[in-house]
Amino acid sequence: MKMGKFITLEGGEGAGKTTNLEFVVEYLNSKGKRVMVSREPGGTPIGEDIRSLLLKKSKQPISKDTELLLIFAARAQHIMEKILPGLEAGQWVVCDRYIDASYAYQGGGRNINLNKIKLLVNNFTNKLEPDLTLLLDVPVDIGMSRVRERSVPDRFESEKMSFFHSVRNSYLSQAATFPNRIKKIDGSQSLALIQSEITQYLDILLVS
Questions:
Q1: Within 10 Å of residue 76's Cβ, how many Cβ atoms?
Q2: Which one of 31, 56, 99, 177 has the largest count of C-beta atoms within 10 Å of its C-beta?
Q3: pLDDT: is 104 or 155 the higher one?
Q4: Phi, psi of 174 (to 5 degrees)
Q5: If you ran DSSP here, which 8-state letter would residue 69 be given?
Q6: Residue 13 class from Cβ within 10 Å (0-12 exposed, 13-18 middle, 19+ buried)?
Q7: What does the alpha-carbon distance between residue 206 and residue 151 come to, in Å, rounded to a whole number?
Q8: What is the per-residue pLDDT across 117-145, written as a single tens digit (0 to 9) for each?
Q9: What is the pTM of this model?
Q10: Nearest-5° angle of CA 21, CA 24, CA 30?
Q11: Under a CB-based contact definition with an 8 Å cutoff, are residues 42 and 74 in contact?
């Protein structure tokens, strides 16, 4: 039986997930929770190998279906090896991206039929859903300007702007569909305002 809580952070490129994930972990620690931090794709040795393959620019293109299957292969390993054991041990698992990212990036961005993604979700995730998803939303032009300032773009970050608009629209659609779980936060606000909102959602989860 799941004992810990599962929190995911989602958002497009340059949304501020990394900074705010660190805040979430520090806040939960201050409340006496044991926290495990992870990410997708990745989180396990096998998952990290798959992540490297997915992010690396190459002359050999990866088909959209191959991309989808690789992500779910990494996810299946991640759930079995790390997320479920952590939750069953009473830890709070905080993860950078999860299933919502597949609907946004492969469904919205790659235009893969959502039923195809749902089939993989139903068969390879142990029906594990987050208790809370924090969706950091920023306009695409703001997010991509942040990306260009921080590092050399990876394979995903090198996509056309239309790709990222589709990703964002998919995320917003998911937030509208699952408002009890997905909490949309304006990532273009000041960091203080963003983290004030995050604190409110975490406090609700802490007493649930």
A1: 17
A2: 99
A3: 104
A4: -65, -40
A5: H
A6: buried
A7: 36
A8: 999 999 999 999 999 999 999 999 999 88
A9: 0.95
A10: 145
A11: yes
User: Between 189 and 57, whose confidence is greater?
Assistant: 189
Give SS3 for 88: helix
Work out the burial of residue 11: count CB atoms within 10 Å of its CB; fewer than 13 is exposed, 13-18 middle, 19 or more buried: buried
Residues in the chain: 208
Owner of token pair 């926290």: 35
Return the structure tokens found at 138: 């920023």
Residue type, 68: L
- Output the six-digit token pair for 44: 């396990």
DSSP structure class, residue 82? I
Write the CB contacts of 7 (distance below 8 Å, at least 6 apart in sequence).
24, 92, 93, 94, 95, 130, 131, 132, 133, 134, 202, 205
Copy the structure tokens of residue 42: 């990745």
- Least Cα distance to 181 among 114, 113, 121, 133 occurs for 133
Positive or negative, the Cα torsion across 98, 103, 107, 113? positive
Give the Å distances, CA to CA, from 98 to 42, 101, 119, 161.
10, 6, 16, 22
- Strands of the chain (E only): list them: 6-10, 35-39, 92-96, 132-137, 182-186
- The Cβ of residue 50 has, within 10 Å, a number of other Cβ atoms equal to 22
For tokens 């991309």, the residue is 67
Cis peptide before 41 (omega within 30 of 0): yes
Q: Is 160 helix (H, G, I), strand (E, B) or coil?
A: coil
